[in-house]
Structures are given as C-alpha cells and as structure tokens.
Write a structure and sequence with these properties.
It is a single chain. The protein has 425 residues and is an alpha/beta fold. The chain has two domains: 6-179, Rossmann fold (3-Layer(aba) Sandwich); 189-405, Uncharacterised protein family UPF0261, NC domain (Rossmann fold, 3-Layer(aba) Sandwich). Helix content is 39%, strand content 16%. The strands form three sheets. Strands 7-6-8-9-13-14 form a six-stranded parallel sheet, sandwiched between helices. The longest helix is centred in the first third of the chain and has 21 residues, at 73-93. It is globular and about 70 Å long.
Length: 425
C-alpha cells in the first residue's frame, strides 16, 4: 500500500456516528489514516469529527445557526453541500486527502453527489447509499468514475450485514487509492460516442485512424451513463475533439426512456467550443428494459431484444422529425466547429434492408428533416453511405484532417516505437 494515504469520510455524524467511526477503524487497521467530515445540521455528534459541521457551514459562507434557521431540510443540506464541496476541494488541493468515502440515505447521497462531481477524474470516490444506481439519481449528477455500493440493512444500527457492506466500501476506496493510475495523457484525446460493435462497428476503423494520426481515442458506450460520462469530461476540457456518432440517449430522453443521459446530452462540446463531428447513429430507436413487458403504445412496433437487459423499438416518422429538430437546435448553439454527417442508407446495423428495424420511408423523412433544419455555420455532409460503411469513416476523418490543417484541432503526437525508446535509453 502507498504510504501516507488519507481518506476523507463524509456523513452526518449526529445520526451515523457508529457507521462513520467503524469505516474509519477499517481504514486505519490497514495502515492508512482517515478523517471524518460532519455534514449534519441539527444534532450533536457523540464524538469529535476532524471537520465539524460548523466548519462546513463556514466554508459555505454562512453559519450553522443560519442554516438551521432555514427550517427546511432540503435547503439546509443544499447549503451544507456547498460547504462540503469547497472544504473537500481545499483539502484535495493541499494534498491532505487522497480519496473520499461518503455514507447516506437519500439526504446524504444528495450532498455526496455534489462533492464527488467536483473532484477530478482519477481521485477515488465511493458512496455507500440506500439508493445505489437508482433511477432517482439524475444521470447528470454522476461523476464519471464514481463507485457506489448499496447500503443494505444499514438504515438504523451497525448490524453484521451493515458491517460487511461498510468494510467492503472502506477497502474498496483504500484499494483504489493504492492502485490508481493518474490520468495524464501523452497525446491529445478525442472522444467517440458509440454502442457495441454488433450495432455500430464504425468505431473500429475510426479508433485505428485516430491512433495512426497521433491521438488517443476514448470510446464511450452511450447507454445512459456512458453518454453522461462523456459529457462531463467534455465539460472538463479533456478532449480536443468529439466524434458524437451515437445519439440514442437524446431519443430516449425525448421519449421518456430510462436509458437517458439527461436533458443536456449533445450540448457540452457546443457550449465549450470543442470541435465536434456529429451523426445520428442508433438514434431511430427507443430503448426499453427487455425484462419488462413492452408498454402498450409500443406493442405493434418492430422490436429488437439486444439481450436480457435492453431492447429497442423503432421510432415513427413523426418522432424522427421531432428528434431531428431537437438535435439541430442543440447544434445551433455551438460555439466551435460543428459538422453533421447524414448517412442516407442507415444509422445502425439493425436498420439494414435484411434486418428487423429497417424502415426506409421513416429514415428518409428523418434525413429530410435534418436537411430542412440545419443551418450555417453548421457543416452539413449528406453522405450516400451507411454509418457502418468504411466510406463513412473516411468522410469523417477527412473533415477531421481538414480541421487539423486549419488549426481548429491541435496536431496529433505520434508515439515513438518501443524499439526506438529502448535503443536510446
């Protein structure tokens, strides 16, 4: 284990004293140190936390008494969250914290999500929560490398099941701190939105092409959380360009599917001015949980069960036109170079002529609506290809190369071969 590791434990010390102190003992038993931050408001803890709730309130620019006087637990915890974020970031920047472990029900989780989202990629962060990975948690609130574990049987009392969960959480965050590889790129990073190769195979040649050009391609699986992680990292300026070629999450959000990345999907690159190439890959489907009966409104639509977790129904012509308008409106706000690529012959493998989701009339209407809605300065590239054709990747890389030549995207950095590195060492 790395020496000198210090874990910050966040929770309400008035109601979770036994649990917080148990996790601290688990960490210290492994030779690391731990400090507890109390984010409670009204109660008095039975021990002295290293960071008191009063210091959290001060970090929020107020006092504990003023927060308590709000008389509303939601408003109070929202202010405590602001203080917890600032205090945690101060400790991180001072090198006094190497990982964060939080504990809570819905109230504590709400606060902890803000803390975790403020921390950089690669700093281990774990929440023990009664709502782990629940649909109560909005996608946009999840840090891209956040770990969660269900706080089973621990709502009231430090029983043996609760101890098993808390000890695992303590070990997990400590182990992550011991083994984490800090994310420092030696090549410019490029984000790629995609699905698996059985649906969107373009990513194979696209990643190869970018690698050959001296870039580090980072591919995101756009099934809700994946697209949200990509958006979060775009907002953090982690990428010099984005190939956003899988927009099913936009469709899903528009149609109420749980496979959503939130309302701001497809907006980060435009807001930050990051050059983006966009295509409506896999966006003509609405994803559903394949382990549930199809909603009655979808019963007569063509359906594809991808596995026992997720399936997709086809969208109607009207739904596709509405989606095209939504995508065009998002792209219209872009502050940086933006190109929309329209594959006339299909947007995923399952809409080929011999596949179950083939709907040429609806697809033609979809492409037509894009042509009608997209305006300058957005580049519109109307391509006589399918999205999984080699020629689609060629067209995308040609745009990318032009933007590099024009100085809109930094040039790639080609790695020296291992043989050359060894010969000069």
């Amino acid at each position: 284990m790395k020496q000198g590791l210090r874990i910050l434990i966040v929770g309400t010390a008035d109601t979770k004293a036994d649990e917080l102190q148990f996790m601290k003992r688990c960490i210290e038993a492994q030779g690391a140190s731990a400090a507890i931050m109390d984010v409670g408001v009204l109660g008095v803890p039975s021990f002295q936390p290293e960071y008191t709730n009063g210091s959290v309130a001060v970090a929020a620019g107020t006092t504990l008494a003023a927060i308590a006087a709000l008389g509303d637990e939601n408003a109070a915890m929202t202010q405590m969250a602001q203080g917890a974020v600032k205090l945690t970031l101060d400790l991180y920047r001072a090198g006094q914290v190497h990982g964060v472990l939080a504990l809570g029900g819905t109230m504590g989780t709400d606060l902890a999500l803000d803390v975790m989202a403020a921390l950089p990629l690669g700093m281990p962060k774990l929440i023990v929560t009664t709502v782990a990975y629940s649909h109560l948690i909005a996608p946009e609130r999840l840090a891209p490398d956040l770990m969660m574990i269900l706080w089973a049987g621990g709502l009231y009392g430090l029983n043996t099941i609760c101890q098993s969960i808390l000890s695992q959480a303590a070990g997990a965050v400590l182990g992550a701190c011991s083994t984490v590889v800090v994310s420092v790129p030696n090549q410019p990073r490029v984000a790629i939105g995609s699905l698996g190769k059985s649906c969107l195979s373009y990513m194979v040649r696209l990643t190869e092409g970018l690698t050959a050009r001296g870039y580090e391609p980072v591919v995101f699986h756009c099934t809700g959380i994946g697209g949200r992680a990509m958006e979060t990292l775009i907002e953090q300026d982690q990428f010099v360009a984005v190939f956003d070629f899988a927009l099913g999450e936009v469709t899903n959000h528009l149609n109420g599917s749980v496979v959503s990345a939130g309302p701001s999907r497809l907006e980060g690159a435009g807001r930050r001015g990051v050059p983006q190439l966009v295509a409506p890959g896999a966006s003509d489907m609405i994803d559903v949980q394949s382990w549930l009966p199809l909603p009655p409104r979808y019963a007569v639509r063509p359906y594809h069960a991808h596995n026992r977790l997720i399936g997709s129904v086809i969208t109607t012509e009207d739904e596709r036109r509405e989606l095209a308008r939504t995508i065009a409106a998002k792209l219209a706000t872009s502050k940086g170079p933006t190109a929309l690529l329209l594959p006339r012959h299909g947007v995923h493998e399952w809409d080929r002529p011999d596949q179950p989701l083939h709907a040429p009339q609806a697809h033609a209407a979809y492409m037509d609506e894009f042509r009608r809605c997209v305006q300058d300065p957005i580049e519109l590239h109307d391509l006589d290809v399918h999205i999984n054709d080699d020629s689609f990747v060629d067209a995308a890389l040609a745009i990318f190369d032009r933007w590099v030549a024009e100085g809109k995207i930094p040039a790639g950095v080609r790695k020296r071969s291992l043989r050359k590195v060894l010969s000069t060492s």
